[in-house]
Amino acid sequence: MAKISKKKLSPEFKTKSLGLFFRTVKKIESVSDAEKFLDTFFTLMEKEIVLRRLATVILLDRGERYRKIQNTLEISRNTVSKIKHIISGDGYGRNLGKRVYSTPHQQKTKRKKLLPPYKGAESII
To answer: Total structural domains in the chain?
Structure first.
């Protein structure tokens, strides 16, 4: 996994850098230009991460189950879940107006189980 410095970029530098990045991407006119761009600015690991995320979006769009995506792409269930939230507009702080925050009273209520009870063999031993 790629490592990143914990030191944050200034908002001004971030804005200028993103502007340059988007203007550069906008100029890409062919697949070969895109390949050159990716090869110039991204490591093999960074490209692999992006490709797995894009493949996850495609598989989620097809309605594939998390476990199949996880096994096919060799990514964690958490990654699949985060990407699902991103494409639904809930991820990484987007659409904050849609989020529902619970009150202290709601937090004390019993939470619904995420997985149904196992209905397989009574004993695995």
So the answer is: 1
